[in-house]
Amino acid sequence: MRAGRTITVPAGEVVSGNLYLAGGDIFMSGKVDGDLVAAGGTITLGGTVTHDITIGGGQLNLSGQVGGDLRVAGGQVVLSGKLNGDLVAAAGTIRVLPGAVVGGDVVLAGGNVLLEGTLVRSVKAVAGKIAINGTVTGPVEVRTVELAIGERGNLGHELTYFSPEEASISAQAKVAGPVTFHVTSGMDQD
What we know:
Blueprint: E1 2-9, E2 14-16, E3 19-28, E4 31-33, E5 36-45, E6 48-49, E7 53-62, E8 65-66, E9 70-79, E10 82-83, E11 87-96, E12 101-102, E13 106-115, E14 118-119, E15 123-132, E16 135-136, E17 140-149, E18 154-155, E19 159-163, E20 168-169, E21 174-175, E22 179-183
Parallel strand pairs: 1-3, 2-4, 3-5, 4-6, 5-7, 6-8, 7-9, 8-10, 9-11, 10-12, 11-13, 12-14, 13-15, 14-16, 15-17, 16-18, 17-19, 17-20, 18-21, 19-22
């Protein structure tokens, strides 16, 4: 357990077992050979965690590698690293950047969701706005006010969405499976 205003796990440091962190600013560039649990204002994870990560915070930036699942609640979540397990996130803004890889299922709740990386399995999301401009191998099921599939969007399975409006799907986007649109109205929009 480590707590303080600023917490740093430097590159080269190896923590055997689980690590618990609480601080205003957390910087983790080392290796945790176990689970990581963290709470803080700004959390920057550039190192390696061999098992699961559970985080609550204002802003999370993950550019490292995670051997298990990532569960996070926060203001802004930015993923640019590699996650072998599931991604479960609730945040105001969720961004999976190009080059990021999620090997497990993805379950999201947020205000704005942008998926530009590679998502190997299924995606389930509820958000105000959702944009997919990356690769999703499994089925996609979303509930949103606004859905956009960009020109680099590559969906290898079916797309099911619930929205008050039809999705904006680029002519260059690829959707291998059927597209099912359910119109929502009234109370269902919330």
